[in-house]
Specification:
- The protein has about 280 residues and is mostly helical.
- Helix content is about 75%, strand content about 0%.
- It contains 15 helices and two strands.
- The chain has a two-stranded antiparallel ribbon.
- It is globular, with a radius of gyration of 26 Å.
Length: about 280
């Protein structure tokens, strides 16, 4: 009996800890997602010779010359300036148009409202290539080609339907009695909408602004088709980097790293709004 007890104690002493399979899968998944970003950062800190001739997990000769080229060469850093200009313009225009439209869809019922709402969403479903040639001919004829407003307005075709769809879901969650109470208290529609209603859907505005910003920031086809020099965004510049000496992979990698930064900052500041959007089922 004593031997049996000792054997049981020994077996308990060498018991292996249980492995959390979910944690392992999540860790592998995060590594899989972060590997391209790490490799991009790794390339941006190498010389072009090291990138082409050696396979290293970290830079042997650490250099920031690639970032210096991006930040000092107007051909590069103006791409970021142009991108930020038309992205901000597009986000402001899209939200300005989408807010009253979403309010109308959430508060009023009229003939063909559901068909109109569905037709609005179909514009978001269409590929950008369908509209590239019509926009090119239109803007060339009216003198808007190669301007920031041209790209901003073109992106509104896709961002306004998405913003209306997101905001309409948030607005439906606000009781209509709030509108009626505000009107009884003497508020005009404009004052009620800005002072009372918009703060109630601030999370929805944040989510819509995030998606408008991200689509306009990463979109390539329209921004490349509708610009040449003055308003060329960074996404288009990165596709035209081959010169007489070939492709400068280090500079291109540095440009890629800097292109990720604005999107990461936007995600950080609106992360709570995005989580609420998931909870409400509109994201």
């Amino acid at each position: 009996m004593a031997d049996t007890t000792a054997n049981k104690s020994a077996s308990r002493g060498i018991a292996l800890p249980r492995v959390n399979s979910r944690a392992v899968v999540m860790t592998l998944y995060l590594l899989f997602l972060l590997l391209p970003i790490y490799w991009l950062l790794n390339m941006s800190l190498k010389t072009n010779t090291e990138i082409l001739n050696d396979f290293t997990l970290w830079p042997r000769d650490l250099t920031f010359a690639n970032y210096a080229t991006i930040l000092t060469d107007p051909a590069w850093y103006m791409g970021y300036v142009n991108s930020l200009i038309y992205v901000v313009m597009n986000t402001v225009i899209s939200l300005t148009v989408a807010l009253p439209a979403a309010y109308a869809f959430s508060r009023y019922h009229f003939m063909g409202d559901k068909h109109l709402f569905f037709w609005l969403l179909t514009n978001r479903m269409a590929p950008a290539a369908v509209f590239a040639l019509p926009f090119f001919q239109l803007y060339s004829s009216i003198g808007l080609f190669d301007t920031h407003i041209a790209v901003a307005l073109a992106h509104c075709l896709f961002n306004v339907p998405l913003a209306v769809w997101i905001l309409e879901g948030f607005m439906r969650g606000v009781p209509k009695e709030i509108d009626e109470t505000a009107y009884i208290d003497g508020y005009s529609f404009g004052r009620f909408f800005v002072k009372i209603f918009m703060p109630l859907i601030a999370s929805g505005i944040g989510v819509a602004a995030f998606f408008c910003f991200m689509f306009s920031w990463v979109e390539l086809l329209l921004s490349r088709t509708l610009t040449t020099v003055d308003a060329k965004p960074i996404a288009a510049i990165m596709t035209r980097t081959q010169g007489a000496a070939g492709i400068d992979w280090g500079v291109l990698a540095a440009a890629g790293v800097l292109t990720i930064v604005p999107g990461a900052l936007v995600i950080y500041f609106v992360r709570n709004y995005i989580a609420k959007g998931f909870a409400l089922g509109r994201v």
